[in-house]
Structure formats: structure tokens, C-alpha cells
Structures
1.
Amino acid sequence: MKCRAADPGPRLASKETGVPDQRRTASRFTLALRRVRDTSLAIVAAVAAFVAPASAQSPDTILINGKIVTTDAAPAQALSVHDGKIAAIGSSAEIRATASPSTRVIDLGGRTVIPGLIDSHIHAIRAGLTWKTEVHWIGIRTLTGALDRLRTAAKTMPKGSWLIVAGGWTPRQFKEDRRPTQAEIAAAVPDHHVYVQELYSRVLLDPGGLAALGVPPELAARVETERDKDGAPTGWLLGDNRAISDLFDLLPRPDFAQKLAGTRAFFRALNAMGLTGVIDPGGYNLSIPDYQPLFTIWREGGLSLRVRYSLSAPRRNHELEDFQELTQVLPMGFGDDWLRFNGIGENGTWGLYNNDKPTDAQKDQLAEVLRWAVGRGMTATFHWHNDKAVHHLLDVLERVDRETPVAKLRWSIAHLNDASADSLRRMKAMGVGWLMQNAFYFRGEAFLGQRGSEPMRFVPPIVTAARMGIPIGGGTDAHRVMGPNPFVCLQWMLDGKTLGGAVMRGPEEIPSRLEALRIYTEGSAWFVFDEGSRGSLAKGKLADLVVLDRDYLTVPVEEIGGTTALLTMVGGRVVYAAGAFEAYEDRPPFR
Amino acid sequence: MTVLMRMIALTAGTALALGAQAFAGGDDYDAANDTEGAGPAYFGFVRDQRGAPVSDAQVFLTPKSGEPVALKTNVLGLYRSHVNKDVVPDDVTISCEKSGYKQDKVFRRTPPGAKDMFIETDCTLRRL
């Protein structure tokens, strides 16, 4: 409106087109009318110019009558959102006063609102590819229920096709407290092939499954057949991480449409758990073309959470060559607020991936890759599973750090559940952060069997690392070695208990609820250079938040794991809503 | 199976288990690494029927031949010890007791025949 009123277009147009200027022949009356018209338009324009900015300041959405958890102040009652960011936080009356008639008002009814959770180490891209074509046992509490899941899936899958459980469970979660047998899965779904993977250590196949998979001799030599005490095969195959991953690769893969649908569904499932962001570290069974569904959804504006991803080395002994090739058109930080490239890892080089005894040549190989990464300002994240051998990795990092300090690149080590004070000190000295997950929720007892109980009071050393000032991100490493639920992880951070009920951590290493929450929000955001824009509820930050079904700050600790999201907002858009909030859910595109 | 055969099987199993660990990484933490000299580590929890840990419970690791090993659970209900490296884990019976309780059930989590150096067995006590 403002532009049109001031626009001299018609007169200029007449000159340009050679039409005689009508003003020369216009009557005084006509001129007077035109003056009135122009004056009126100018007034309208002025009013519009005055009103427009005021309207732009009114919030798009306000959330009132709640408990807004801020990590540096007492909880507030309300907040407002404008243009995807938090515009203000205050009392319900204060925030309501900023609303205009067009503002969406969400009455929280006393519910607690926390910053959107960010899983700092989750294989979300890979999980999404197969989410719709797998059978999930995550969180199921009985083996009978797990077998029922297979039966249900079999009803919708063609006979002879594969029913795949790709991990995310442990026998301890079942009331029966044991693994399924081959006879049980065969009885449950006699007309289908079945692949049940437990962590990265074993796989159960149906009686005809091994032949149907077509395991090549080279892989068969790396897999052990479990036998019962009479020497008969049990149907379970045992192997290391790589062998189990190679077995998985023999399974039929979903088509592109299934991958798209799976990715959307998985991200939505994460939204329902309160996640607004993930940091994906690549890893096994994820090829470069597998990123296409993610990119497609991003292009459509359909991402319902923010994704940061790094690239793991695709080919053994071609690591540097591959990284150089792939990043020619993918510089560090490339992307936007929704999807952004975040360097290399968790597999920097295969020689230092799940290898406790790397050779000097393998360490040199990683150093070469890291020098290249430093030269391109890249962050890097490293999978390392134990403290006893992490000195190999730290030696390489320190070698590179001495040449060029890496602190500003925010490198990180993932897992390292039993990190020693010495390892933490070395990380701190380089500015290397720690990505911590709840692996011991599933595997704590196995750790006790290996080490005995004395060291367990300090694993993982959450409080020690925090006091040392080491950046810590929270996460799960889902969905094969752990379920993706962040509240299960938060509860484990706060009670130190395994799924089997064993107390794994002493009070010395139990953080406060706010500290744990901060690790899962601001802490995670640090690793992708986002702590200034998200990870806490504060004016000017992205409106990434979660309305919870219970008060995280006050419910008994043992109830935290059961928390669900009632409403999840990312960038001011309600990407997920349930129950009384269901009507507020926005539809994609979200940007 | 003769004693010699058992020793061969155990040695082979040990080699496989250790080899797999070194290659696998995954769960290979800085173990006490006492299995090479002392044989498999037997560990687990003693709990009551409600699942609460029972501390100071007596646990017996009884091989088919030879002396049983007796030990006590700690505050978490955890026990961990060895018999000796020549004993096949499948030949070790585990039991638990404590005054005021009777043994309810013993549940070995590590599958029979497994070539595992860490044998996990839980024991449940019922209050009398």
C-alpha cells in the first residue's frame, strides 16, 4: 500500500511509452480531485507506515499460564514467539499484553516448558531410512509383547519377506528377562524371515534365514554360530560390530519412498519425545546416497527438527581422498538453521575405529586427515569406546593440536564411558568436548562383570567432567545400541541405574536436574556452534521448546523416564502436539 | 568329556573370546583383565523377590570337582570372583544364601556353552 501511493509509475510510463502527458489537458477540477486522491493516499501510506512496524512487533504465538524453565533464573509463567524466535519471557499478564488479535494464544494450563532437547550423538539419519520398514522393540516390557509386534508386522508384509528388528532393545527390558529363541520367532511368524539384532553383538535368524541372507564365505568366517550345550545351533549368530553391520547390509533395503516416509516418521517420533534437534555422526550402514531422503525433506521445508550431521569415512584406506572429494562442495557449516554440515566423524579413519591397538601407520593416517580438517576449519568427532586405549587417539589429537590449536574447532570424543581424570585433562587442554550417552543403561552389568564394582561409582564421570569445564553433550547413540528417548537418558543421568536396576554411579557423579537438562540442551548445542541461538529459553533465541506432560523438575526421579511431549515447537512452529494441544499443530512446510 | 578335552575347549574358548574382544572393541573396557590368570569371572546380583539388592549374602561358586568358592555380595548385591581357569563355566553351579532368606531361583544370563570370560548369574532370595 505504501509503495503504491508514492509510486509515480503511471506518469513515467506515459513518458516511456510516448503517450502525451494527460496533465497538460486536464481541467482544474480534475487536478483538484487528483490532489485529494494523492493526499488521501499519502495519509493512508503514512498511517500504514506507522501501524505496520507496530503490528510486526506483536507476537505470532504466546504461551501463557505455564512453568517456563530457564536455566539461569526462576521459572517464568509465559513467553512470546515472533518470527521463529523468543520475543519475551515474563508473567502471563505481561506476555498477554503484547498479543494482537492475530496472535495464537496457547494456554499451558500450568504445564512445564523446557528448551527443546538436542541429542548430540544419534544415528537419526540411518534410523529414519528404515524406521517404517522395521519392527521396533524399543521400550517393550515383555518378550510376549515383542513377539506380538512381529505377528502384527507379518500381517502387513508379504509372505517370505523380512521382519527386521535392528536393535534398540536388551533382554533385561523383558519381564521374562531373556532373549527370544529361534523356535519362538518361527512359531510367531512362520511365513516370514526374521532378523533380530541385539546391540552390535548378536543376531537371531529364523530357521531359513541364514540361507536366505546368502552370507558370503568371507563374512561367514567372521561370524560364530552359537550352540547349545548339546552342540545344536541356537539360531543366534555372534560377531563384532563390523561383522554384525555386514550382516545387516545383506538385508533388503527400503526403496526411496519408504526411506522418505521413514525419516519423516522417525523425526516425528523424536518430536514426541521432546527432541528439537539431533547431531548425527554417520557410522555403519550409511552410504552417501542415503543422505538424499534427508535432503529432499529439507528442500520441501519438511524437517520437524534441526539436523546437524558429520560425514564418517566412506571407504577404508581412502579416507582423506573421500573427504576431500565430498567436501569440495560441502564446506564446514554449509546449510541453514534446519540442516547444517558439521565436519567429519565419528569415523575419521577406519584404522582408529573400534581398534584398541592401532599401528603407528594408522595413527599417521588419522593425523593426516586431521591436518587437512584443521586447514579447512572443520570440526571432527571421534567414536571411542573405552579409556584404556583412548591414549592412542589423544596422542594423535595432541600431535595435530601442537601444530595448530584445535580448540576453536570444537572437536569431540563420543562415548568414552569410563573416561579417566587423566583422559579428561588431556581433552580439556585441547578444548575437546565429550559426547556422553546412556550406554550403561543397557550394558552396565556387563561392565561390572569386566571391571568389578569399585570403578563404577564414577562411570560416566559426568560431574567430574562438568567441574573441569569440559563441554558435555547429552545423547543416546540410538537406535541400535539404545532407544532414542531423551527422558530415559535424563533419568539414568539422575539415578545412575541400569535397566536391570543396578545402581551404577555414586552420588559424586550425579548431576542436578537442571545440570542434566543443560547438558541435553545448551551442552549439546555447543558442539554445533549453536549455543548462542538455541538450547535455552531466553529472549532472542530460536523458539525451540517442549511442553511436557509432567514437571521434570519435581516429579520423582523414577518417573522422569516416562515423560512425553504434549507440544513440541521448533522455530516457532508447532511440529508436534498431542492431547489438549493437538489443535495447535502446524503442518509442513515449517520454514 | 575328559579333563584334557575340557581344558582344550576352554583354552580355545578363551582364545576366541579374547581375540573377539581385541577386534570388536565395543564392550571392551579397561577390564580388570584377571581372566587370563584366574579364569572366567563369575559375577551377578543377589536380589530379593522385589528386586532389591541383598548385601552380605553368601554366594557359592561350586565346580563339579574341586573346592567351592565362597564370597559375599557388596552393598549393591553384586558379587564377582573366579573358580580357576581349568574349570569349564558350564560345570560351575552357583547358589546364594543369607540368614532369614531362602534361595528362590538362580538365573544364568550367559548362555550355556558360550565362549565368554564373564559369566553372569543372578540369584534371588525370598524372605522367610
2.
Amino acid sequence: MSEDRADVVGTAGTDFTLTISSGEINSATLEAGQTSRDLTVAGGGRAVIVTDLPSGDSFVSMAMIWTPGDTDATVDVENVTKGDAHAADPKPVIDLGDNPGTVDLFGKGA
Amino acid sequence: MKTVASVVSLAALVLPIAAFGQGGAPNAPSPEEFCSKDARAEIQTFCKDLDRFQKHVNSEKSKGAETPLAAKNFANDLNHLDLHDPDARVKFITALAPRLAASSFVSKATAAAAMGDASAQRLDRQLEPDHASSGTTSLVSKAGSAELIALALDSGVLTRSVNGTTATLSTNADQIFRLITGSDPDCTVTCGKASWFQDRILNPTTLSASLDLAQRGNTTVATSGQASGTTSTEVNTAAIPTGAGKLSSFTARYEFANQFDPRTSKFKENWTKAVAEQQVGAASDTLKTATDAVTKSLQTNAPALDADRILGVAQDDPTGHALANFFAQYFSDALQKVVQDPNIRSLVSQVMQDRALYRKAWFAALHQAAGNLFTFEYNYNRPADQPLTHDLKLIFARDFGDRGMLTFNGSVSLYDSIPSAAKYGRLHYGQISTEYDRTITGKDKSTQTQLSLAGYWQYQPHPSILNIPTGTVAPGTTIPLPNGTQEFVGTAGSLWVTQAKLTIKASGGINIPIGVSWSNKTDLLQGSKVGAQVGISYNFSSLAGIFTGGQ
């Protein structure tokens, strides 16, 4: 994966909130290489708070609960409190029913 | 047998109508995908992503976008097709699992066994024959269905006079269909039209058959002459025993689910509660952990997708067929590399097991949130030396969670046929009954105990009927009674039964019900009776995978 293909690109060390338009996140972790750390789920299960975006490739893994009537979930970035981050254009999508849900991240710079 | 035809016709009319009338998660039909008819499993699994990518490419070309198209404008599409990318992992594992034949069998069998253990906590399963059987522990029929296959042995009677032992085999039509055909769609919220028949017809249908082990099967054959002796009475026919155990009843039941609209606040409220009670979140967390473990292997071993090449292929052939061929080759290459990891089989097997458990919890939550309207049950009874009957029963259950479950039954029993000059009508009896069940110990442990208290009232307009077997002679004489003679036995009116039962539920799907009952009379005898019932049932969930292990 490269910067061109990542779902969310930002400066390494950035803090931001990932949001999804559908489904519910039960728990989430940030997976970077062989390391994994828990992330805070917010927004009634529709958001994950990502802190200290790692440099290079990583991804957010989300244990999902899909509800009847849900649709594909569009991923977006909100509330960037430190640094810079944005979602790809067009916006990334998590397919309805996919479990776990995945968002690719790329952190620029050291 | 006219009544049989009537009942079957009624069922044939009622069931499909009701099935059509049931609500469900409305999945809007997606426009035809170019790969929807492709027979290759990997193309089927990734069809939505391939179609989305091809349509996106075609759309950009039609807008006059510069060629070659830039991969960065198709990031989302390409990530879902790149087997090295975590975005593609869920579908990659789905396509990978059947290729790892050994673990497919293990995962199905293990998942089924785990699901069997989980379902042992249910209060609503009906594995025993109903109260009218000559060997039963169940006074009130439950609303829920069996799992794949369950076998129950029961001894003791509740409303009958003749004590016996029965063996009952129960199965869910959908589980059997999946077992035989290997059609086991790995879906929850996306299960749509493709599985309508399974969801609405097979899944709510349970079938069971009971053998009365105390009865011997007989066939009457003509004799060909006296072999020895000097008796003057000619014997023209003889009953040949054909084996121990005779089919005493056959049961078909259908669960009618409530209609629901997922957009209503009522459903959302029920869903939230059901998700918590069925522990869907915990199952999802476990699935995530197992999938993350596989992802590490896939990221190490699966080759990255050549974005420029796949874009070129999609541009050159707008039909998508070249794209499907390209992806099939890419998948094949990736498969060869991924299977080099000696741990991949066990890792994928764990994911498939956890998916099965998540799916089980998800559908249990949906079932709970929607709620069951009622269960319809049809019994075809063949009691010993009594007329055949057809019993039609409605079952309603109300689950109060930790406080237990209440089940209500209402049924009528009809005689199969009425002989000429009969002094009774078609109606055998009508009954209402109720049962309260509650898990009293070991709620979250492998061995549990369940307490059941039941009450039953039956009213029959005429005394019970006893068939007089062929060859019976009038008392004190050698005068044979005419073939087809029937006698009234017992009394008309009310039959009351109460039962207290303790069921020990052990791990591995073993249930041992032990009950004690009191009744004011039985079907053939007057006077109150205190009886005991005991049984054992086993859930054969581990049979799952026996037909799919070789795939």
C-alpha cells in the first residue's frame, strides 16, 4: 500500500477521529506491523479516535455489528486535533456485512 | 386418510402464504453484476468489488478521462481487490477457506460443536415427542426448533395409560439442506434473495419422527397350510414380526416470525437489547482477533496487486470478463504463496469457526428482536391399538430473559377416519396447557440445570377408543369378534395433568430430563395416577462438515 492508495493519509503523529456512516463499531485496534493497540470507540459506535498516527502503513481493525437496514459504510475523517489527516477521494467504503471492518492508514514523515 | 389429505392441503396453502407474509431485513436488489453468473468461487466472492471497479472504470472512460487512468483515483476499488491489502482480507479468507480442505472440515465440525454447546442454554428447544406419546418427558411443546440432528430417548407417560419408551429423531430442514448440498452462505445482514427459500421455508421448519420401542412392527401374510398338529381350526393368516420399534408419530412444525421494519424505533430498541443479551459484540470481538491474526500472514505472503495492469485490463474490456480472468489468475498465484505458511490452515480454520459463532449470535439476536408470532405443529399419531389421529397445535412462547420463559399450547386432535355406524365424531379432544421454564444453576457454565413446571387440561367429548385386534375372541368363548371392532374405554370429559421436571444440560449437547407428574386419570384408565418420566437427548452437531470435508 502506498500514500496514493491509503484510505486515510496524514502526518505521522496526527490525532483524529474516523467516522463511519453505517454499522456499529464494537471495538477497534490500530495494527501497525507486529504491534497492536486498542482505540477508543465513540459517537455511539460510529467513530474511532485515532491517536499518534504511525509512520508508513498501518490499519484500523474494527469489530462490527451490522444491523438489518444498514448499508455500505462511508469512511471519513473528523476532528483532527493535532497534525493533518484526510480521507481519500472518493471516500473509502466498508462493504455491508464485512467483519471486521478495515481502514488503511498512511502516516507521512518520520 | 381423507383427513391426511386435508391437513396436507391446508398446510400447503397456509405455510407459503404465511412465509410470504413474514417480515425480514429488506435487502434492495442490486443491479445485475457482470460476474454474478461466473462459476469460479473466487470471482463470486469478489464479484461486488470487481463489478464496482469495472463500472467505475467504464464511467471514467465515458466521461473522457485521460488514459491510461491513474490508480490513485481508484484507491477504494483497488484496495478491495488487492489480496495483500487488509481491505480485502474478509473476502480473501472467505475464498481461501474452501481451498484448505482439511481445516474446512475441522472448522465446520468444531464450529458446529461449539454452536451446539451454546444452544444448550436455550429454554425453547423441543427435542422430545409430545404429551400424547407412549414415551415422553414433555407435557408442553416448546416453540423452538432442533439443531442439525438430535436424538432423544424418553420413557414414561403423561396422558397415556400404556407406558413405553420412544426414540425420537429431530432435524431442522435448513440444517439438513446445508449439510447435504454444502450450501452454507457465509452471510448475516447481506443474506438476501439468494437464500429466501432457506430463510423463509427451510429454516423455520423442523421435522421429527418417533419410534415406539416397545411396539413390534408386524406384517400380516397368508399361510399356505398346516405344517404339523391336528387342530381342526384353519389358520389362514399370520402376523410376522418385522422388527422392534414402530413409527408412532411424525411431527412437522413451522415457526412464524413477526413482521418487522428495521427502521422503526421499536425494532431498534429490541435489536439493541437482543445484541446485548446474545453477546453479539463479544462474538464480533473474537472474530476480529482471529481475522487480525490471519491478516499478518496474508500481508507477509500474498503478492500485491499490479494496479496499473488491472486498470489496463479493465479499460480494454468494458464487459468485465477480461477483468474476471485477470483476477482469477492473480488469486491463483496468491493462493500458491499464501499456503506456504504452515500456520495458515489453522488460522483460517479459527476464523471460520468464529464467523460461525458470530453468525449464530447475530441471527439469534435478530430472532429475538423480531420475536416469534407463534409456532404451528402438526402431529401424525399412531398409538398402539387405538385409532390414528392428526393433532394440530399452536405454540406461543414469551421469554422473560433471566426470569425464565412461559410457553402456551392449544391443540385439537382429530381421528383419521370414522367407521360406519360409529358412536363418536371426528374430534378426539381439545387441550390447552402451559409451562414455565427457568435455568436455575450454572447459567454460564458447561453444565446447567433447568426447572420446568407445567399444567395441562384436556377435554374429550367421548371416552377413548380401543381397537380390538383381529383374532380376538369373545370372553369365555371361541367366537372371534368381527374385524374392525372398536370399544369405548375410559371416560369422557376433563383430563388434568401437572408435571415438575428438572433437566440436566451437560456439555456436548446432552440433556437429561427427569420429571414427575400427577394426573386425575389417563386416556384408558380411571383414577388418578402419579408417574415418572426420564429421558436423554443428544445433539449431533458434530456431523456438520461430513459432506463438505472433501471440498
